[in-house]
Each structure stands twice: as structure tokens, then as C-alpha cells.
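This section describes the prediction task in plain terms. A model, or a person checking by hand, is given the sequence of a single protein chain and must write out its three-dimensional structure as a string of C-alpha cells. No templates, partner chains or ligands are provided. The sample shown here is typical of the held-out split.
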Amino acid sequence: MTVNATAGARQPALWVPGDWNAFFGFGTNILVNLLVLTGLLRFVLKMPDDIVFGRILPATGLMLCLSTLYYAYLAYRLAKQTGRTDVCALPSGISVPHMFVVVFVIMLPILGKTGDPVKAWEAGLTWVFVQSFVLMAGGFVAPIIRRITPRAALLGSLAGIAITFISMSPALQMMLTPVIGLICFAIILANWFGGIRYFRGMPGGLVAIAVGTLIAWISNGFGLNYGGLTLAGLSGSVARFGFSIPLPAIGHVFSGFEFLGVILVTAIPFGIYDLVEALDNVESAAAAGDSFPTTRVLTADGIISLIGCCMGNPFINAVYIGHPGWKAMGGRIGYSAATGVFVLVLSWFGIIAFMTALIPVVAILPILLYIGMLIGSQAFQETPHNHAPAIILAVIPQIAAWGKTMIDGALGAAGTSVAAIGSAKLAGNGILYDGLVVLGGGAVLGGIILGSIAVFVIERAFERAAAFALAGGILTFFGLIHAEAIGFARSPTLAFSYCAVAIMLFACARYASFSTHSASAPIGHASEAV
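The expected answer:
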């Protein structure tokens, strides 16, 4: 007790030399994410600049500043309590996977239906609003969810989004401007997968963006204009320099509730995924010697995200992976707080507008493809080999959802729709549109249910498989999966079918005999015969 009292009397250093290294590394990481986010808002969602630079980015900067300052405070508190000088703050920022999820799975479909970017923004705000409460409540239920849901199902459903909604569009656009896209992609691959170091350890993403920008502006000099940049656009962005503070957007948050049926089927499962991810990252920090209170971390993520969305930010806050790396680099307390102030300056003074006019979007797209590759491969790397079939099953609903989106977009561009043509006529040409609607409805949660059933069948835990099949029936009945909106008796036949599968699996658990070899033996170890 005397040691603790003595330790508590010490005042931890707010800045040490190693914080410079961590600040430049972490600050660059956050900057790249902000540039990607801005590109998604402007070029994918076609958001007006007044909303992007005047409402969303100032609110995002506020959220990130609050987050990094809070985790700097937690590190300061831990250092003061223990008397240690090596405590490193948890890194935090916009959840990168969820940045793409809210854009491509929530905001883009709403934009397609309404043609109104403001409605898409409001749907994103409501999505974060719901997720924030899931995070706040999740500190108490996250361990239970983590125990009952197989990792292969959670990561498999996420991999489906990574392959379709995150990776496909960037890959296609890169091929349309290969002089920038492929070269920047090779730079990123060599650094992030191949371990090549650039210019005194400069991050690969920053090098790729710099090279892509250089190519774009040089091509302009030869009249090729590969990056679509213009001097007029660059000079116009200077007009964005100024001071914009976030304004309350509570009315917009509640306006988005008209899309609640679409939002709930993704906000709840991804809120759960956030909980699991945060738990993993807190455990990672504890393994590196810094034990932070899990409940405070999860609650802080929820509260800070809630503040952000009420001020106009449609992106969730999250604790980042990588704490041991920043600690090994010498980061302690100051790097986190300094990054928050840095982001606030960028977003409140209009500097990001200048950067987006300076940097071609195709130079950023390889980062999106890399993220898609990373998320997709993680599903197979972080799960047992014999769960691979379950991952594939969890991916399929997202492919159906993506296929439906492509068909709707193509017909819309042609001035028609499925309703006008008739799904039967499409089926006659091999396009089973109605099947895509059913399989792709609530694809995130549907993938988790199907993947979980498959995992437990592979593991011969048939009672657990039956429980997930029963859950699938209930969720289907109320339209949370296999439907485009929540309601009562949305798909009663399919709900009944899930329940019948549950009965069959329960019967297998009680009465069936088993073969001595698992069907998954060629790709992994076979389960022991029962």
C-alpha cells in the first residue's frame, strides 16, 4: 500500500521523445483515414461539399479529438496509479471496416432509393446512434456474445462485405486508371505485405498517395490528366480555408429513423462485432503491460460516438489494434492527445478540402482494396481450418446483396426497374432476382446465422446448431433477415423452414450416429468420431 501511495504521488510525463515517433506514425494513419473518408463522401455518395466540409468533417474531428484525449487521460491515470513511466495510451479513431459498411451498406442504398444525399447522411447518423447504445450496453454482455457466436461466422459475414462492397468498386476503378492505381497498389503491397521500408520508415499509404499525386500532376502537364485534378479545383479549394465548428444535428439523427428497418439489421450485429474487437484490443494492450478497464473503454466508445453523431458525424469511434506497436515505438501519453489536436485543426480549418483537391482519389483506392483483402483473409487466418466452409457460407448472402445492388443500379441507369420488367422475365434469362432479394436481405445478420449453423455442424455440436437455426427462424419471421424491412410474418414459409431445420438438427444431437471421418478433412483436421 505504501508503494502505491508513493507511486500515486508521482506526476507522469505528458510528453517524452518517443511520442514524436508515435505521433507522426499514428497521425499519418488518421490522416489517411480522413482522406479516404472524404473521398467516399464526395465521390461515392456525391455529398455536397457544404455537408462534407461544413458539417460532417468538423463533427468527425470533434469526435476523434474527444476520443484521443480520453484515452490519453486513461493512460495518465494508469501511469499515476502504478508509478510506471512506460504506460502507452490506447490508439483510437474511426472504425475503418465500419466506415465502409455505413457507406456501402447503409448510405449508398438509401441514396439509390431516395436520390437525396441528405437522406443518406441521416441514415448514417441513425446507424451510429443505434450502434452507440449497443456499445454502451455491450460492456456487460460482450463476453456472453463472444462465447456463443463462432468467430468464423462473425468474420465470415464481414469478409463478404470486404469482397463485395469494399473491394470490387476500388478494384474496377484502379483498372480504369492503372498508371496511378496499379503503381500505388504495388507500393502498398510491397510495404504492408512485403515488409519493404520506404524513406526512413515512412508509412506505405503515405508514400503511395504521394507517388500517385505526383503522377497525376505530371500527367496534367502532358495533357493526359490521369487523376482528374485541375488547377482550378485546387485554387477553388483554398476558398474552403476558414473556421467551421460542428453544429447540433439531432433533428437529422431522428429523421433517419424512417430507415430503421434497414439500419437495425446491420447496426446491431456490427455493434456486437465492435464489442468483440474492442475486447481483443484491450486484451492486446494488457498483454503489452497496460491494463485498462474494459467497461470504461467500451462505454467511452459508445458515448463519444453518440456525441459525434448528434453533431453530424455518421462514423463510429473504436479502439484501434496496434497498441503494442506504438508502445514499442516509444509512444506514451502525449502522442494520443497531440493526434486529437492535429485532427481538430485539419477538420475545423478546412485543410482537408485542400488535400482532396491536391490528391487524386485513384491514389487512395488501393488502400480500400488492401483493407478488403485484409478483412477477407482475416476470416480464414483467425479461425480453424475446418471452419472454412462455414466462412464461405457466411459470405454468400453479401454476394447476393451486392448482385441485387448491381442489377438495381444497371436498370436504374437504363431508366427502368425490376418492377417494370418483371422478375419472371429476368428469371427466364438466368437472373434469379427474387432469390437475391431473399438471400441478400439482412445479409450481415443472415451470414452470421448461416455461418454459425455450419460451424456447429462441422464441430458436431448439433444442439448449438439447432439453437442458431431457431434464431434464424425467429429473425426471418420478423424481417430482420431475408427481408428488406422489419415487420410481422415477413417470410413465414422461410421462417418455418428454419424451424424445421432446428428440429432436424436437435434430432441429430439426440438420435443420430456419425461417420468416422468429417467431410471437412481435406481442408483441415477431422473431428473425432462421436
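For orientation: Residues 385-523 form one domain.
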